[in-house]
Amino acid sequence: MKGIRIRPENRGLRATLYDLQADVMEVIWSSGWETFTIADVHAQMARSREIAYTTVMTTIHRVHEMGLLQRERDGKRHVYRPSMSRDDFYRETAREVLQSLPEPGHEAAIALLIDQVGEADLQELDRLEALIRSRRKELMK
Fold it and tell me: Number of helices and strands (H, E) in the chain?
């Protein structure tokens, strides 16, 4: 992903994407399309609000430039596909934020994670344990 920024006052996709970019990606991920066109996204968005085709086109172009969408030519039009899932987007965002921090900030982020683990329920702890076991196996190869 290119040009990540954090808006801590927002939640979810809007913490890193502008509102319309987040709306477009939400439509794409929620629709489950393997491939799609600008017209597909526009039609879906136009069901719930008035929005110009050119606005959707410009937004999709910008999201493509950020690396969230792949594009290929199909005759006179472009066909798009998501470069990553919503979960992968959140994971990559977290990774980029952590890697961008200087050492004291990185240590603070790890400390915060440990604090969060202290508040986790059993299901979340099981999930974290599985992730740690998986990572250890990768490192031991």
Answer: 6, 2
Contact 38, 51 (CB under 8 A): no
CA distance 69 to 54: 18
- CB–CB of 69/34 below 8 Å? no
Length of the chain: 141
| Cα–Cα nearest to 38, from 30, 27, 47 | 27
Q: Where is 96: in which H helix or E strand?
A: helix 86-100
Question: Which candidate, 67, 74, 122, places its Cα nearest to that of 96?
Answer: 67
Helix, strand, or coil (residue 72)? strand
Predicted confidence pLDDT, tens digits, the chain (141 residues) = 665 677 778 788 888 899 999 999 999 999 999 999 999 999 999 999 999 999 999 999 999 999 999 999 999 999 999 999 999 998 888 888 887 778 888 788 888 888 888 888 889 889 888 988 998 998 998
Which residues neighbour 96 within 8 Å (Cβ) at sequence distance 6 or greater?
Answer: 1, 4
Give CA separation, 15 vs 10, 44, 117, in Å: 5, 23, 22
